[in-house]
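Page 42, continued from yesterday. The earlier attempt failed because a stray header line got pasted into the input along with the sequence. Redoing it now with the clean sequence only.
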Amino acid sequence: MGIPQGRPGATKFYVIEAGKAGVYFDEAAPPATILVEDDHFGEGALLTGAARSASIRAEAPLDLLVIARTHFPS
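This time it went through. Structure tokens are written below.
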């Protein structure tokens, strides 16, 4: 399970505390990049409400800090 590309904008922002996640623009290809500790994702969809531009998939066990949209000032 991951966070799939093309889904509606997020209501959460994610910070990786431990582990690693792949960023996929094409599920059949290798990850475009690997995110590690202190990297983050979800800000684009969170701020704009646009569809997600990539899929995120755990490449190793992840510890995530999850921040809901409601915690950001409007």
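Notes: The beta strands are 2-3, 12-18, 21-24, 33-35, 40-41, 55-58, 63-68.
Reminder to self: strip header lines before submitting.
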